[in-house]
Amino acid sequence: MATITAVEAFDIRFPTSRELDGSDAMNPDPDYSAAYVVLRTDGAEHGHGFAFTIGRGNDVCVAAINAHAPLVTGLDVAEVVGDLGGFARRLTHDSQLRWLGPEKGASHMAAAAIINAAFDLAGKVAGKPVWKLLADMTPDQIADLVDWRYLSDALTREEAVELLRAAEPGRAEREKRLMERGYPAYTTTPGWLGYDDEKLVRLAREAVAEGFTQIKLKVGADLGEDVRRMGLAREAVGPGVRIAVDANQRWDVPQAERWMAALAPYDPYWIEEPTSPDDVLGHAAIRRAVAPVKVATGEHVQNRVIFKQMLQAGSLDILQLDACRVGGVTENVAILLLAAKYGVPVCPHAGGVGLCEVVRHLSMFDYVAVSGTVEDRVIEYVDHLHQHFLDPVVIEGGHYVTPTAPGMSAEIRAETLTAYAYPEGSVWQ
């Protein structure tokens, strides 16, 4: 029987601020980074995962991963992959580490990195990509992944199992369509705030030519500039392509309402992160004010409880879970089930290193086994840093090609781990 012999953590950073890739009104100079973890075993397979950050503070997440290592080292691999929900709760319920959150911040992101690495390991042991590993589970097995504490006023385990059973009859046909067509994507690549007009227009036109039916622009720094850039983008893509806008938490509630009124003539599809990610009632007020423009948020929502409140309060039209911010796959399964209960589409966040690679597994599982639809559902795509992964994302005709390699597609190439290690790697010297 194989055991987990070590938890190895790496501080990996990419200097994306040099070209302003990833730039927005709140984060003008991000260096996409991964607090990367490997679950080493004495068997044939190892698990890989990471927490995504944008530079400074990545070392804090690495330290938090190392703090969780004693809870993991020495565990039997078969027991871990046989009870992934229990493994996740072992990390998130540790009373002393939990005090740092609870269930939020760097400690929770570190737990997510390890939990996702365990799912990567489980997929490799089973010989399945993680979306397929999840989609092949019974409704009861899926429900067993979830930490049901704090959710029963919105969704009970029994209701979730019933929802999953109702989706079972169409699983095989949806899986067949997923393998044939992939999953719809939209692209943020044209819209980074640091890009000049020529680059914005060129990339927007290229996106449409490549089959994308939605692009996204960053907004929130200067109203006049945002109106002008929105006009350029709308002219470039025409009336039939959706343009989402993203303020990255820049505004107060009244400011969001005024700003969106000015952008309304250019038909924005959604406004993303208009205000603080913790402001449940503020998002609800903005949603009422800017309709029919949709409100989307979630990449910085800390846990399933905040998502539960947002759904209960009618705070969002689009739920944007993040594969690496909440407690990894297990908590995201809970969030997918909550979204299905409330009938809210899930369009995940993927603007960062490796996020496209891992989050596609969650959306594809959702389609096959939970929501049963891709209507008004798209996964974000950014054209950065995929070459550093062993199982990189492939886009065809504006769709994510369905991954078939075992695991969660999180493994970074060995040469990248050496070159981009911070601060000693050659890229940083």
UniProtKB/TrEMBL annotation:
<dbReference type="InterPro" id="IPR046945">
    <property type="entry name" value="RHMD-like"/>
</dbReference>
<dbReference type="Pfam" id="PF13378">
    <property type="entry name" value="MR_MLE_C"/>
</dbReference>
<dbReference type="GO" id="GO:0050023">
    <property type="term" value="F:L-fuconate dehydratase activity"/>
</dbReference>
<keyword id="KW-0460">Magnesium</keyword>
<dbReference type="GO" id="GO:0000287">
    <property type="term" value="F:magnesium ion binding"/>
</dbReference>
<dbReference type="InterPro" id="IPR029065">
    <property type="entry name" value="Enolase_C-like"/>
</dbReference>
<dbReference type="GO" id="GO:0016052">
    <property type="term" value="P:carbohydrate catabolic process"/>
</dbReference>
<dbReference type="InterPro" id="IPR013341">
    <property type="entry name" value="Mandelate_racemase_N_dom"/>
</dbReference>
<dbReference type="InterPro" id="IPR013342">
    <property type="entry name" value="Mandelate_racemase_C"/>
</dbReference>
<dbReference type="InterPro" id="IPR034610">
    <property type="entry name" value="L-fuconate_dehydratase"/>
</dbReference>
<dbReference type="GO" id="GO:0009063">
    <property type="term" value="P:amino acid catabolic process"/>
</dbReference>
<keyword id="KW-0479">Metal-binding</keyword>
<dbReference type="InterPro" id="IPR029017">
    <property type="entry name" value="Enolase-like_N"/>
</dbReference>
<dbReference type="InterPro" id="IPR036849">
    <property type="entry name" value="Enolase-like_C_sf"/>
</dbReference>
<protein>
    <recommendedName>
        <fullName>L-fuconate dehydratase</fullName>
        <ecNumber>4.2.1.68</ecNumber>
    </recommendedName>
</protein>
<dbReference type="Pfam" id="PF02746">
    <property type="entry name" value="MR_MLE_N"/>
</dbReference>
<feature type="domain" description="Mandelate racemase/muconate lactonizing enzyme C-terminal">
    <location>
        <begin position="197"/>
        <end position="293"/>
    </location>
</feature>
<dbReference type="InterPro" id="IPR018110">
    <property type="entry name" value="Mandel_Rmase/mucon_lact_enz_CS"/>
</dbReference>
<keyword id="KW-0456">Lyase</keyword>
